[in-house]
TrEMBL record, chain A:
This is Nitrogen fixation protein NifU. It comes from Azospirillum oryzae. CDD domains: IscU_like, NifU_Fer2_BFD-like. Keywords: 2Fe-2S, Iron, Iron-sulfur, Metal-binding, Nitrogen fixation. One of its GO terms (biological process) is iron-sulfur cluster assembly. Residues 4-124 form the NIF system FeS cluster assembly NifU N-terminal domain.
From TrEMBL, chain B:
Residues 5-368 form the Aminotransferase class V domain. One of its GO terms (molecular function) is cysteine desulfurase activity. Catalyzes the removal of elemental sulfur atoms from cysteine to produce alanine. Seems to participate in the biosynthesis of the nitrogenase metalloclusters by providing the inorganic sulfur required for the Fe-S core formation. It comes from Azospirillum oryzae. This is Cysteine desulfurase.
């Protein structure tokens, strides 16, 4: 059973503004082929003030699709057309107190129906430009289509790069096999087993794909001196300590060896089943702070120093 | 939820209280390892052999040593297929149907993609019956194993496994059947059968989850998937799940006792439910082959509405069922069984499975009959495909992404 919020349940069991709006002067009809859902959104817009006076919906879809539609109508009534256009699918999901990652596309369908309806009102042609695929990374809600685009556009060739650009696979790591499959497929298709030429991310209309840092290229990132870099790592770890200490553990920086950062977990952390998760958390934090990809490893894995 | 009406027995069943009673001593006084030399172990070993005989009886197998206990249906399916491929390394082809359980399909897809096996997927017609011509054409001396389910979990449609097994034999292929839905509901006599291997799962027949068995016909070339100890005559290493095995034995014994009830009273309740819903709700139909299916299963496709929404409203009414809708599965893929039968997606998404068991009562069925039409009407009032007030569908063609 999906873990729906109370707000989702409220909008599903007692949807607001469902049915046909006879006085509608704007209608948007969209569907998602992946899950077969479909939505018709009907608006009544005042031509003088551009205010959406009324909105109704009809939805063929699951609980969260119906709830997203219902929430959407509540959110846009009373707004002007231009105000409404600033709403994104994330606003719909937030209004509902969040949606399971697998169900985020329901909110996307809502946002698209709104754009389609407003285009209809303005007499414009509306074209759907988003595609969706199988959900790969459940932690961050990244689907196969998004990974494919990131790989193709940015010329990615490794799992680490995909994680770096899309976050996919950066948390629980259980989807790595699937990410590698997508990578293999794209690389086989483009024949680009050699690294494709690099693009500066964010300049190719990929609003959905953002690298963790606006400038993820190590070359273009402001170059830290070794001392600055070490200090940045130390302060990031200091920042994390209080949180880990609250759970009765502690973390200590042992050594920095290029991209490998060795730490020691102690107290309640040692031998705790969650310690791998804690390591991962430290790594995410460091990647974020440094703007480069680093690996956090337990001190026990440190290579023996020669000489 | 203990007061709820449970019609999702193809997903899993309640452990029978008698089964639980048989299991409990295995957690307390009879906790020994059956491999041990002392008395603690010997007592458990005896119980396991008793359980093996109960499963043998349920399957009508010739020998109790043909039963290998596993962790469940998926392990049995994987073991059977991998065993055949390893035992006949020169044969590089596998035959299954398009409507198999993922326990078989996902493995075969993996073997096709990563190990280079040729994988024949036999299609079905719009009632879920196997395309016999395609099956015949796929068989050759290159086929290591055929794996085709006895009955489909979503529609209950039964495949002619005996005939399929004989045809496989003619070309020298092994025949395995995933029978997790049919064991305990259909009488079996594997001693007289051409079936080489059969998978069953405890939790589908009122035993607990995490226990199952693989039937392996005596004399069959077999290679274990798990290597390690000598347990199960070295065919499945690992210390025996003794409480689970004894539970499965007790459940097998009870299944034989109740098989008549499943095929008379339970079947009549299923038919009553189905006929009442078909009569009360417009634009819905039974999927699969109604004339040849499990006695407990009924799958109705409600057109123009979506299954998850149906299940949520049924759940509010205290009724548990299941759906072929994309949205109820983590993968978001619509049911491959519905798609294979060519059910249009506006109906496939509304496909709802009611699966009964010997625990189901007539009062419960009457309650479901009373509730379902209202739920369907409520959701159709929200659907863009449905003509309000006219009780019929209308034209609707959205832009698809």
């Amino acid at each position: 059973m999906w873990n729906y919020t109370d707000k989702v349940k409220e909008h599903f069991f007692n949807p607001k503004n469902s049915g046909v709006l006879d006085s509608a002067n704007a209608v948007g009809e969209v569907g998602s082929i992946t899950c077969g859902d479909a939505l018709r959104l009907m608006l009544k817009v005042d031509p003088d003030t551009q205010i959406i006076q009324d909105a109704k919906f009809q939805t063929f879809g699951c609980g969260s699709a119906i709830a997203s539609s219902s929430a959407l109508t509540e959110m846009i009534i009373g707004k002007t057309v231009d105000e409404a256009l600033t709403l994104t699918n994330r606003d719909i999901a937030e209004y509902l107190g969040g949606l399971p990652p697998e169900k985020m596309h329901c909110s996307v369908m809502g946002a698209e129906a709104l754009r389609a309806a407003i285009a209809n009102y303005k007499g414009e042609a509306w074209e759907d430009d988003h595609e969706e695929g199988e959900l790969v990374c459940k932690c961050f809600g990244i689907d196969a289509a998004m990974i494919e685009r990131a790989v193709t556009v940015n010329g990615l060739t490794t799992l680490e790069e995909v994680t770096h650009y899309t976050k996919a696979g950066g948390s629980c790591q259980t989807c790595h096999e699937k990410i590698e499959e997508v990578l293999e497929e794209v690389l086989a298709k483009t024949g680009a087993l050699k690294p494709a030429k690099k693009h500066t991310p964010g300049t190719v209309g990929l609003d959905a794909i953002k690298p963790l840092e606006p400038k993820a290229e190590p070359v273009t990132a402001p170059k830290l001196t070794n001392v600055q870099r070490m200090q940045a790592i130390m302060s990031a770890i200091e920042e994390m300590r209080p949180q880990i200490q609250r759970d009765g553990g502690d973390v200590e920086l042992v050594d920095i060896d290029g991209k490998d950062i060795y730490v020691r977990l102690s107290g309640a952390c040692s031998g705790c089943s969650q310690s791998a998760g804690t390591m991962m958390g430290v790594q995410m934090k460091l990647v974020e702070k440094l703007g480069e990809f680093v690996r956090v490893k337990p001190a026990s894995l440190m290579p023996a120093h020669v000489g | 939820m203990s007061q709820g009406i449970y019609l999702d027995n193809n997903a899993t069943t309640r452990v029978d209280p008698e089964v639980l009673q048989e299991m409990l001593p295995l957690f307390t006084e009879h906790f020994g390892n059956p491999s041990s030399m002392h008395g603690f172990g010997a007592a458990v070993g005896g119980k396991i052999e008793w359980a093996r005989k109960q499963v043998q009886a349920l399957l009508g197998a010739a020998h109790d040593s043909e039963i290998v206990f596993t962790s469940g249906g998926t392990e049995s399916d994987n073991t059977a297929i991998l065993s055949a491929l390893e035992a006949y390394p020169k044969k590089r082809e596998i035959v299954t149907s398009v409507v198999e359980h993922p326990g078989v399909l996902a493995l075969c897809e993996y073997l096709e993609k990563k190990r280079g096996y040729k994988f024949h997927r036999i299609p079905v017609d719009n009632r879920g019956n196997l395309d016999m011509e395609a099956y015949r054409a796929a068989l050759s001396d290159q086929v290591a194993i055929v794996s085709i389910m006895w009955a489909n979990n979503e529609t209950g449609t039964i495949f002619p496994v005996e005939e399929l097994a004989r045809m496989a034999k003619e070309v020298g292929a092994l025949f395995h059947t995933d029978a997790v839905q049919s064991v305990g509901k259909i009488p079996m006599k594997l001693a007289d059968s051409a079936i080489d291997m059969l998978s069953l799962s405890g939790h589908k027949l009122h035993a607990p989850k995490g226990i199952g068995a693989l039937y392996v016909k005596r004399g069959l070339r077999y290679r274990p998937m798990l290597r390690g100890g000598h347990q199960e005559r070295s065919r499945r290493a690992g210390t025996e799940n003794a409480p689970g095995i004894v539970g499965l034995g007790a459940a097998a014994q009870l299944a034989l006792v109740h098989m008549g009830d499943e095929n008379t009273r339970v079947k009549a309740l299923r038919d009553k439910l189905e006929q009442a819903i078909l009569a009360a709700v417009p634009s819905c139909f039974v999927t699969g082959n109604p004339d040849n299916r499990l006695p407990n299963t009924c799958n109705i496709a409600f057109e123009y509405i979506e299954g998850e929404a149906i299940l949520l409203l049924l759940n509010e009414a205290g009724i548990a069922a299941s759906s072929g809708s994309a949205c109820t599965s983590g993968s978001l893929e619509p049911s491959h069984v519905m798609r294979a039968m060519g059910v249009p997606y506006t109906a496939a998404h509304g496909a709802t499975r009611f699966s009964l068991s010997r625990d189901t009562t007539e009062e419960e069925i009457d309650r479901v009959i009373a509730v379902v039409p209202g739920i369907i009407a409520k959701l159709r009032s929200l659907s863009p495909y449905w003509q309000q007030g006219a009780d019929r569908p209308k034209e609707f063609a959205p832009v698809y992404s």
